[in-house]
Each structure stands twice: as C-alpha cells, then as structure tokens.
C-alpha cells in the first residue's frame, strides 16, 4: 500500500505526462463529438421516440481514472428505455454499451449477442468494473435475464486504434450496426 502521508512530488512535477494526457483527452473528445454529430436529435428520435438526443460527458475519477462518454438516446426508463453509450475509460478500454428497457430487451438481445455483445450479469447498470470483469461468456438463454433488472445492459469491448480518421470510421461502423438493429 502506498504511503499516504507523503505527497508524490515526482508525479506532481511531471508536466509532460499531464500535457500528454490532456492532449489525448482532447483527441477523444473530438472523436466522440464527431460521432455524436452523426446522430442529430431528429435521427435519434426516429430510432426511439423517447430519445433525448446525444450528449457528451467526461470525468476524472471512474475508479481513479479519467473517462469520456457519448450517450445516444439517453432514455433510461426501466420499461421502455433505450441508450447507446460509447465509453472511453482511460487505460481500461473503449466499450460500446446498449441499455434496454424490459419491453425492448428480448427482441433486440439476441441480435446484440450475434454482434458479439455480452449480456451484463451485474445488477447495477453503471458498475463498469463489475461488468467488464465478469465472466466473458455471452449468455444465450435470455429468458431469465430481465426479471430482476431495472434495465438490461449489453456491452462490447472495442479495439483501440492510434490514428484518428480510421478509428472514427471504425467506431462509426460499430455504432451503426447497433442502431440498425434497434
């Protein structure tokens, strides 16, 4: 365990590390913003009538690490909700998540599994550490998956690429595959 009585001045004084991290956060923000612009409010409402559009957000402490989120839909109603989330969790991964209300889950769930998504087994739809560290075997029997949950979550780890334009095309393609089945 780290000695919390001492300040880590070596980290504090490493301006280059902070500048690199901020530059990378800015690049991902631009990337997610461009992807969000592909889904204007009218288009999102065409996918789901209760949608509230697309929204970008970010923070610095998801289990101690920075993160950025692009939400498309933003309806977390446990019965009829729909949200598609792109999560960039620094040093942990980039994930595509689909939140479905219980009346949407059975019909879309099988199609998501066919696309390589994993049905989350955790009860909290925002428990990312628990979700991403769970058994990685996709669940095929969906019949009992929706009874105890307020909202059902499917997720898919996405690859990381180091060149902006091809990576944006890849992420856009992954988002489109999901939107096309919803």
What does this protein structure show overall?
The protein is an alpha+beta fold and 182 residues long. It has one domain (13-132, 142-181). 37% of the residues lie in helices and 25% in strands. A hairpin with a 3-residue loop joins β3 and β4 (93-100). The longest helix is centred in the N-terminal third of the chain and has 23 residues, at 15-37.
Keywords:
6 strands; 37% helix; 6 helices; alpha+beta; 182 residues
Terminal CA distance: 46 Å
Q: Which regions are unreliable across 5 or more consecutive residues at pLDDT < 50? A: none
Tally of structural domains: 1
Number of strands: 6
Strand order of the largest sheet: 1-2-3-4-6-5
State Rg.
Answer: 18 Å
Q: How many helical stretches?
A: 6
Largest sheet: 6 strands, antiparallel
């Amino acid at each position: 365990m780290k000695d919390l009585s001492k300040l880590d001045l070596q980290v504090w004084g490493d301006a280059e590390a902070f500048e690199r991290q901020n530059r990378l956060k800015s690049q991902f923000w631009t990337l997610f913003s461009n992807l969000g612009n592909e889904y204007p409010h009218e288009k999102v409402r065409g996918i789901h009538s209760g949608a509230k559009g697309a929204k970008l957000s970010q923070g610095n402490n998801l289990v101690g690490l920075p993160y950025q989120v692009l939400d498309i839909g933003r309806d977390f109603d446990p019965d009829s909700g729909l949200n598609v989330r792109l999560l960039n969790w620094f040093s942990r991964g980039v994930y595509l998540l689909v939140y479905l209300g219980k009346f949407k889950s059975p019909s879309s769930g099988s199609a998501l599994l066919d696309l390589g998504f994993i049905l989350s087994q955790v009860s909290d739809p925002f428990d990312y550490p628990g979700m991403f560290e769970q058994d990685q075997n996709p669940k095929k029997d969906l019949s009992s998956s929706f009874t105890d949950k307020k909202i059902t979550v499917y997720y898919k780890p996405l690859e990381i690429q180091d060149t902006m334009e091809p990576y944006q095309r890849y992420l856009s393609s992954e988002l489109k595959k999901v939107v096309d089945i919803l």
